[in-house]
């Protein structure tokens, strides 16, 4: 499994009037974790896109456990369990500073040619980086 962690402070604009993080922001946290994982692995999304492959989101699943609040520091754990072929599946868990599980989720990304917009296989550069970083 390829695994990465990122910590972020909850920002005021992410919360509602009660100081609770709005549910839509967890999907943004998933993206922050996913982007950070690829950056740390040495293959940022921008490099993949510059090579002519885009990664559109195919589906997002999110299961809320307990809310994050203003002043919390969240830890986003991003995990890839297998080397992708036609789609990239990234599982995420989000915890607060007390290690309380706030949310779990899965994001599925496809691969398309940036010119034709037709589906393509996972770029070899991405597959090899993921394979190299499997624990």
TrEMBL record:
Pfam families according to UniProt: 4HBT_2
Entry-linked InterPro entries: 4-hydroxybenzoyl-CoA_TE, HotDog_dom_sf, YbgC/YbaW
Keyword Nucleotide-binding: no
Domain of life per record: Bacteria
UniProt keyword list: Hydrolase
PANTHER family reported for this sequence: 4-HYDROXYBENZOYL-COA THIOESTERASE FAMILY MEMBER, NOVEL THIOESTERASE SUPERFAMILY DOMAIN AND SAPOSIN A-TYPE DOMAIN CONTAINING PROTEIN (0610012H03RIK)
Assigned protein family: Belongs to the 4-hydroxybenzoyl-CoA thioesterase family.
Protein's recorded name: Acyl-CoA thioesterase
């Amino acid at each position: 499994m390829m695994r990465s962690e990122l910590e972020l402070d909850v920002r005021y604009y992410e919360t509602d009037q009660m100081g609770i993080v709005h549910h839509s922001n967890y999907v943004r946290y998933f993206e922050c974790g996913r982007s950070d994982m690829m950056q740390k692995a040495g293959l940022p999304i921008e490099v993949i896109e510059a090579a002519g492959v885009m990664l559109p989101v195919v589906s997002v699943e999110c299961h809320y456990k307990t809310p994050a609040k203003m002043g919390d520091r969240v830890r986003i754990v991003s995990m890839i369990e297998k080397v992708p072929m036609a789609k990239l599946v990234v599982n995420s868990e989000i915890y607060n500073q007390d290690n309380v599980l706030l949310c779990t989720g899965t994001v599925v990304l496809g691969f398309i040619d940036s010119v034709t917009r037709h589906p393509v296989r996972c770029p070899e550069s991405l597959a090899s980086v993921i394979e190299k970083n499997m624990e």
